[in-house]
Amino acid sequence: APWGTWDGYGPDYWWGSTPTSQMGAWTVAFGSVDLANQAWQNAEGNQSVDLNGVSRCSIYQDLPTQPGQQYVLTFSLSGDPGMIHYGTVFWGGNELGSLEFDARYTTHENMGWETQTYNVTALGSSTRLEFTSGDPTQSGPYIDAVSVLAATIPEPATLAIWGTLGGLGLIAARRKRTT
């Protein structure tokens, strides 16, 4: 079986090294991953993922989305203490950004989690969210508290205010040009 306990960490530390292994709703694309329940401080809840088990890895989840709908992707980022960790987050096959977390001054009891937020748009009825480690060692970036929520559309009153401010900006620009 690809998932099991890791010696020395007990039943709260899980690992997987088979590509296409399932970890709940997540799939391991390549490499190996560590899923820790209580081995270190989690950002939220009882589990977080180290994107490097015995090698760097990539995990993904195909999400049902509505084409053209805007979403807010939020997740927490940390890493094994004592190192700087690198990775990449992808949305629909496109790189959203490079991840970097400086864990040189953190501990397993105080992981220094940072919240990352991206505004994204779905291009199809299914969109792949993927996290890939860039670390070549057995310690990589940690991911936790992943959330993808539909972005809210501003209330009509908010749109009216923005429309008014935008109109004033255009009038001021026109006046400047004529004087």
Architecture blueprint of SSEs:
Layout: E1 4-6, E2 10-16, E3 22-23, E4 26-30, E5 33-36, E6 48-50, E7 58-64, E8 70-79, E9 84-91, E10 94-102, E11 114-121, E12 126-133, E13 141-150, H1 156-178
Antiparallel strand pairs: 1-2, 2-5, 3-4, 4-7, 5-6, 6-13, 7-12, 8-11, 8-13, 9-10, 9-12
Mean pLDDT: 77
Individual helix count: 1
Q: Give the CA-based shape.
A: globular
Secondary-structure class: mainly beta
Strand content: over 45%
The value of Rg in angstroms is 21 Å
Helix content: 10-25%
With strands numbered from the N-terminus, the spatial order across the biggest sheet is 1-2-5-6-13-8-11
Low-confidence stretches: 1-14, 156-179
Task: List the secondary-structure elements in sequence, H or E.
Answer: EEEEEEEEEEEEEH
**Total DSSP E strands:** 13
Q: Note the main sheet.
A: 7 strands, antiparallel
End-to-end Cα distance: 77 Å
Characteristic key phrases:
1 helix, 13% helix, globular, 179 residues, disordered N terminus, mainly beta, single chain
What does this structure look like?
- By secondary structure, this protein is mainly beta.
- 13% of the residues lie in helices and 47% in strands.
- It has 1 helix and 13 strands, in the order E-E-E-E-E-E-E-E-E-E-E-E-E-H.
- The protein has one helix spanning 156-178; strands at 4-6, 10-16, 22-23, 26-30, 33-36, 48-50, 58-64, 70-79, 84-91, 94-102, 114-121, 126-133, 141-150.
- The strands form 2 sheets. The chain has a 7-stranded antiparallel β-sheet, with no helix packed on it.
- Strand 1 and strand 2 form a beta hairpin.
- The longest helix is centred in the last third of the chain and has 23 residues, at 156-178.
- It is globular, with a radius of gyration of 21 Å.
- It starts with a strand and ends with a helix.
- Residues 1-14 and 156-179 have low confidence and may be disordered.
